[in-house]
Specification:
heterodimer; A: about 70 residues; alpha+beta; 4 helices; B: about 190 residues; five-stranded antiparallel sheet; about 20% strand; disordered C terminus
């Protein structure tokens, strides 16, 4: 029984499968500092959305698109 | 509650916790403000250096993602530099960003024009706008953090003090840079 429990998948969603990230999380994923991240947002290289309190969120699709554009 | 009212002990505690929680943010914000301040203070000298490099046609070649070729003149930050090139219309200057994204590199022209000083001023102005985006987002994050940590408590005084501190930090450096560029000693 204990062994079965140990092998259970975690119940929380892994961070890589989330739909959007905070600016800091996105910066960490891209390996750039916060200022560079906000600069990409200000230059509209990355589109963001605002949640209730005005916090910026970067959609996962935007991050993937940025990296794909960069690969071309 | 207004920001000029005395904070309660709980608000003081929340403020200390928020400062600790957002320490990396605050550190990077200040460091980048300082870096921009230095660029603004050295703007005339940097423009002169760029112009001199352009006249000597010196500097390694940088090809940006739009296909144009530039010659490196002066580094501004770790990832941005002033570059130059000769065109039919004369010398052209640009601030070029070489942004490493993991193993890739994005090379973008941020600002360009025929006057190096004007290009640098436009660059500095754009960077200031970035700080405003950052400040607004950081304020929202502090608000969210406090609302989750202290539900049903009025923490607006703490959020406002954060916002004012960041705004003051930006404007103080802006004022300093403007005064120095006009030769006013502070």
């Amino acid at each position: 029984m204990e062994a079965i429990q140990e092998n259970k998948e975690p119940t929380t969603t892994p961070p890589a499968e989330r739909l959007a990230y905070s600016v800091q999380e996105a910066a960490d994923m891209l390996g750039i500092n916060y200022f560079t991240m906000y600069r990409l947002i200000q230059r509209q290289k990355l589109k963001t959305c605002r949640v209730l309190r005005g916090k910026l969120l970067v959609p996962r699709t935007e991050l993937l698109q940025l990296l794909q554009t960069d690969l071309r | 509650m207004k920001y000029y009212e005395r904070p309660t002990p709980l608000q003081e505690q929340a403020n200390a916790e928020a400062i600790q929680h957002f320490a990396e943010h605050l550190k990077q914000f200040k460091a980048n403000c300082d870096a921009l301040h230095n660029i603004e203070c050295n703007l005339p000298a940097t423009a002169n250096d760029a112009f001199r490099a352009a006249l000597q046609s010196s500097g390694h070649i940088i090809q940006t993602d739009d296909g144009t070729q530039w010659q490196h003149a002066v580094d501004l930050t770790k990832i941005t530099s002033v570059c130059h090139r000769r065109t039919a219309a004369g010398l052209e200057f640009a601030v070029v960003e070489c942004l490493p994204l993991k193993s890739l590199e994005m090379k973008d022209v941020l600002n360009s024009g025929h006057d190096a000083r004007e290009v640098l001023q436009a660059f500095a102005h754009d960077q200031r706008q970035v700080f405003k985006v950052w400040k607004d987002d950081m304020t929202a994050q502090v608000r969210e953090y406090l609302e989750e940590k202290y539900p049903h408590q009025d923490m607006s005084i703490v959020v406002e003090s954060f916002e004012i501190k960041l705004a003051r930090d930006i404007s103080r450096r802006e004022t300093l840079a403007q005064n120095q560029s006009h030769g006013v000693r502070i």
